[in-house]
Amino acid sequence: MRGDHIGIHIRCCDFLSDTRNQARFGAPNVDYFRRAIELLSTECDFKTILLVSDEPDLAWQLIGKDLRDYSGMQVEMNPGTLEEDFCALAASRAVVLSNRTFRWWAAWLGTALRNAPVVFPEPWYLDRSMDAKGLAYPGWHPVPR
To answer: How do 74-78 and 94-96 pair as beta strands?
Structure first.
């Protein structure tokens, strides 16, 4: 199954618990992930979505069930270590990012190694005073959040 899925990163921890981070970065938004899946589904025929999160149980409750019901695809949670999650995203056939640079690197590897399509949230930062120049790698797809 590895490599033949859409890898989705859902950041929960400090995005949900810290109001400053919510104002700067935003919290997980199921509509963003739905739009990303729609976009990627026009490029490839995916059967599986692999969710990667710092809080797998919470991510499943917030978004996982909805994505399964919405997309009709099999949705799996990767309960791996940080390193395993990184590798799972890098091996994905396509990647949907949350706005964190650590996962950005996993998506970049997927693009560099296999030309994997990548979706990122636009704007990257909700706080428009923060500079996001250079985060949109050429060929990646911005999706409004």
So the answer is: unpaired
Model's pTM, two decimal places? 0.85
**CB–CB of 141/117 below 8 Å?**
yes
DSSP code, position 44: S
Distance from first CA to last CA of the chain, Å, rounded?
29
pLDDT tens-place values along the chain, 145 residues long: 455 789 998 877 665 566 776 777 776 578 898 899 989 988 777 888 999 888 888 888 888 878 888 778 888 988 888 899 999 999 999 999 888 777 889 999 988 988 889 999 988 888 888 888 888 888 899 999 8
b/e burial code for range 91-111 (CB count within 10 A of at least 16 → b): bbbbbbbbbeeebbebbbbbb
Separation between Cα atoms, residue 100 and residue 108, nearest integer Å: 12
The secondary structure of the chain in percent helix, strand, coil, rounded to multiples of 5, reads: 45, 20, 35
